[in-house]
TrEMBL record:
It holds the Pfam family HD. The lineage of its organism: Bacteria, Bacillati, Actinomycetota, Actinomycetes, Kitasatosporales. It comes from Streptodolium elevatio. SUPFAM superfamilies: HD-domain/PDEase-like. It comes from the Bacteria. InterPro entries: HD/PDEase_dom, HD_domain. Residues 22-113 form the HD domain. This is HD domain-containing protein.
Length: 181
């Protein structure tokens, strides 16, 4: 079975029933990843797998710390025995290290999972930040505003988004530039 097919089935089995909206978002992020295939070459399937799995740590059965990038990456590494690079991308998706600092989990995340190649990290940020919670395309500005409206400025997520905003925008811009002819 191909990596992308395996990842899709695992994400669907884990997210579709308990979290249908999160599953819709994950599918939308994966569709965005497919658009990057021509510029990623041999890493296209790797990005697709990470995109569809990036929010797997939200699944109620997987919650251990309450920090979905870490919970998802640990599950992928320890239980699902996923590809190491996919696991790293899930662990560090969308500036997760900044949010881990807000949660007091930065050392855990950094010690357990290396950061993957920057162009792939950027690509996954682009896919996540240009997809609505319902799986539809959007802009990074609109997505960041939506996250802030959902969580509030003073929440952990709100503080994280404010801190990470420049990095999220820069990664999105770098990937958009790669897509431009």
């Amino acid at each position: 079975m191909q990596l992308g097919d395996w990842a899709y089935r695992l994400a669907e089995d884990t997210l579709a029933e308990p979290l249908p909206r999160r599953w819709a978002h994950s599918q939308g992020v994966a569709r965005r990843a497919e658009l990057l295939g021509p510029v990623l070459g041999k890493d296209a399937e790797l990005l697709y797998a990470a995109a569809v799995l990036h929010d797997i740590g939200y699944a109620p059965a997987l919650i251990a710390t309450g920090f979905h990038p870490l919970d998802g990456a640990r599950y992928l590494r320890d239980i699902a025995h996923a590809d190491t690079r996919v696991t790293r991308l899930v662990a560090h998706h969308s500036c997760a290290l900044v949010e881990a600092e807000e949660r007091g989990l930065a050392r855990d995340l950094a010690d357990e999972f290396e950061i993957e190649e920057l162009s792939l990290v950027d690509a996954l940020i682009y896919c996540d930040m240009t997809t609505t919670p319902d799986g539809e395309p959007t802009t990074a500005d609109a997505r960041i505003a939506e996250i802030l409206s959902r969580y509030g400025n003073d929440s952990i997520v709100g503080r994280f988004i404010h801190r990470a905003h420049p990095d999220l925008q820069a990664a999105t811009a770098r990937t958009h530039h790669r897509l431009s002819p």
